[in-house]
Amino acid sequence: MSPRSARLARLSRSVTFSACHRLHSKSLSDEENLKLFGKCNNPNGHGHNYKVIVTVRGEIDPVSGMVMNLTDLKEYMQEAIMEPLDHKNLDKDVPYFSEVVSTTENVAVFIWDNLQKLLPQGILHKVEVHETEQNVVVYKGEQRKVK
Question: Do the record's keywords include Zinc (predicted)?
Answer without folding.
Answer: yes
